[in-house]
Design brief:
Layout: E1 6-18, E2 48-51, H1 53-56, E3 65-69, E4 76-83, E5 91-95, E6 104-114
Length: 115
Amino acid sequence: MNKLALVMAMELVTATIYHADPRQTDDTPFVTASMARINPDNPLGHRWIAVSRDLEDLGFVFDTKVCVTGAEDLSGEWCVQDRMNSRWVKRIDFLVNTTRTGGKWEDVKIELITE
């Protein structure tokens, strides 16, 4: 995180992973809800997350940077580019490559950051 970054909001969430796959998304798996296009060869390279809709009211909206801690090797800076199904609350999904097949973390801290 940049020294000039300012934390604007913080939440504890459950974090999981997802793939750009029609079984886990809609029928356009390589286009996010923000209309960003996913590189099918390396989705993880984008460092994009999907957020549950309740988090949008707290400022976790498309194109915002988020610092994630407590998710092992997926901790770090991510960008909100996708939205989860409305059934989920206090939850984020990491967009990862299909070679990664599992991952769920409880009490992950997410912080909205601005520079």
